[in-house]
Amino acid sequence: MSSTPTVQVHAIYTGQCFLRNHMLFNDGDENESTPCPVWSFYIYHPVTQTHILFDLGLMKELDEYPPKIKEDFPRVFKPQVKEDVGDALKRHNISPSQIKTIIYSHPHFDHCGNPSLPHFHDAICLFGQGTQAYARPAYPINHESRFLESTFPEGRTHELTDKDYTLTLGPFEKVHDFFGDKSLLLIDAPGHMPGHQLALAKTGENTYLLLAGDSAHSAAHLQEYEGRMSYYMHSDKDAAKETLKKIAALTKLYKDEHKNVRVCLAHAGHYEDFERII
Ligand SMILES: [Zn+2]
């Protein structure tokens, strides 16, 4: 029995995308692609009975993506979606309208689902510091943008500020305690893009999940960030490498304290349907 509050985390498969191999590894063939899952994570906080999502994954309505993204669909990403996050929740008897907050690792197309669907109309959309300065104005205000304005609904979009980052955690300097009980920490982890954030979920007395978004796009990157890893998809290569170094340091720090941290990337790993991850 855990003595401090924990959260439950379940994986939701929202489809798959392809990445060209040179986007993943320096020695990757640009004419070959690798299929990558697109995961969303459902988080439940039993003490307050709060339902949260960390990322929404892909949206089924592929035609609603910005033209700049759709240009890349046939030749690069080739997204495939059968069931979106809302469908999956309903199939598990969770009404999407119960979702109080959608925490975004970052607002790239494969993490934002379709937030304009009615069933998420009450959810707060929470982003890391610096996200909107980088991503807005988005499409359709800016026709060249790869981001969608609908990801930032008026009155429901919150972005963390300096005063929210009240903790540090090992090598990470900007950490937000979402529930105020350390069961879910949001960690500033730029590099993939400004405002990119991780979520550290405490799932048991000594077990943690680090929902790591697009810090990396392959489990191999967690070891090979100074070797074969390509930083093709990261807006700031040095910051992205620094984030991966910090993830490795945090994992080691916890291991030394006999705590287990499992890193869950948005595009790697295999989970059963709505698997509860611990
Ligand atoms: Zn992604």
Automatic annotation (TrEMBL):
Which residue ranges does the record assign to the Metallo-beta-lactamase domain?
37-267
| SMART domains for this protein | Lactamase_B (SM00849)
Looking up Gene3D superfamilies in the UniProt record yields: Ribonuclease Z/Hydroxyacylglutathione hydrolase-like
Q: InterPro entries per the record?
A: MBL_superfamily_lactonases, Metallo-B-lactamas, RibonucZ/Hydroxyglut_hydro
For activity, the cofactor(s) needed are: Zn(2+)
Keyword list (alphabetical) reads: Hydrolase, Metal-binding, Zinc
Spell out the coiled coil positions from the record: none
Family note: Belongs to the metallo-beta-lactamase superfamily.
The molecule here is called Metallo-beta-lactamase domain-containing protein
